[in-house]
Amino acid sequence: xxxxxxxxxxxxxxxxxxxxxxxxxxxxxxxxxxxxxxxxxxxx
Length: 44
What we know:
By secondary structure, the protein is mostly helical.
């Protein structure tokens, strides 16, 4: 029973970690896209 709980906990931790990394990268690319759009509107 204890091993199964550890396995589940580890899987949950990995999932949260992947989600956190993915969210951060997504936020960064969104920020970059917004900055690029602002640059283009300033140039035009």
